[in-house]
Design goal:
By secondary structure, this protein is mostly helical. The chain is built from two helices and no strands.
């Protein structure tokens, strides 16, 4: 008569532990999901900022340095 009560108690204990672990995992999943979407949003913002910076620099003409003399690589190696 004692064995069924012990088994019921052990099953109840296992169920409570499993429920708590499932709740903890669900909270962690929700937190990770929130972090994912925050990072995705920040990535989009940074990509837009870089695009604006690139368009700003593309509008300015590049002025290569002039008047410099050509130095052969063989003379640099010595």
């Amino acid at each position: 008569m004692l064995l069924p009560w012990l088994l019921s108690g052990a099953a109840l204990l296992v169920a409570v532990v499993a429920y708590r672990k499932a709740r903890r995992t669900a909270r962690r999943l929700e937190e990770l999901s929130r972090w994912y979407w925050e990072l995705k949003y920040q990535h989009g913002e940074l990509k837009a900022r870089i695009g604006r910076l690139d368009s700003t620099f593309a509008a300015e003409p590049l002025n290569p340095p002039t008047g410099g003399a050509f130095i052969p690589l063989s003379s640099v190696k010595r």
